[in-house]
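Title: Prediction job returns without error message
Component: structure pipeline
Severity: low
Priority: P3
Assignee: unassigned

Description:
Job completed but the reporter wants confirmation the result is attached to the right record. Sequence as submitted:
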Amino acid sequence: MRLLERAGVTIRLAGGSDREGGGAGPLVVLLHGFGAPGDDLAPLWRVIDAPPGTRWAFPAAPVVLPVPDGSRGFGAPSDSRAWWMIDIERRLAAAERGELEAMSREVPAGLDRARGVVCRVLDALEAELGPSAIVLGGFSQGAMLACDVALRTERALAGIVLLSGTLIAADEWAAAAARRRGLPVFQSHGSGDPLLPFAYAEKVRALLQAGELDVTWTPFRGGHEIPAGVLQDLGAWLRRVLA
């Protein structure tokens, strides 16, 4: 694995001809979730059966979260990051009160900036690596951001990967979805997800299908996670869209 500093963030490169992003194959860019370290998703490149020569990029989000007082040395990650700030307590309270529908229409503060960061990262990777195709995806907050970049920019993408994401900026996404007609989407979500309810993943799927994107829907019994079965299905999807 190789480290790059581009667009103001650290990017981990793997795969390809030298296991460090070399060669001329396609590129899969995965964005980690809220509160995770920058290398959180990096091990996935070793277990997803993507086409030979596929290269992988794992950018670290630019927002560094403080470690809660008293948690050092007790399992709290030393590198906890975010693409934008999320008020977790507000979201959980809204879920208890049945107010997530209104929240799903909000455009989070910091989303525009995060989208700009990812676009600059993609620009840098495209210029430096010259990939034959780019798939953009992520987990949780990273999935939300990947979807937002795909729907609200004109960037050429071979597909998007949405692992346990949810609906945000719903009005903007709905208005933009038709511009991505036919774009392949891999979407997975756990039916027992305690953080981002399954029903709102279904709303994302419905919104994308209404825009005639090509959604491969992979629900599973589980929580806020990426189980082995999802990774197997994701590998098969990548082999299809990157063929």
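Comment from assignee: result matches the submitted record. The chain has a mean pLDDT of 94.
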